[in-house]
Amino acid sequence: MSVEGLEEHKHCAVCGAVISHKDKGKPGKAYVCSEQCSKTYDKRVKKVKRIKLLWYLSTFIVLVPLAILALLFG
Length: 74
Ligand SMILES: [Zn+2]
What we know:
- By secondary structure, the chain is mostly helical.
- The chain has one helix at 35-73, and strands at residues 10-11, 18-19.
């Protein structure tokens, strides 16, 4: 079974609207139906990136002292 047929049309990454025209999307850039959705998507991506960065930082801050403790007392 192939799912290639499903690639014929795209859905807007923001509102889910079907994008029927063959848009030459840039690699790594999501398909969006309008300028408004494009802005919303960019904002969402930036927010997710910031949350991920904070998550990695907090993990690092917790793990480093733990690793040091493990090295000292483990
Ligand atoms: Zn949209």
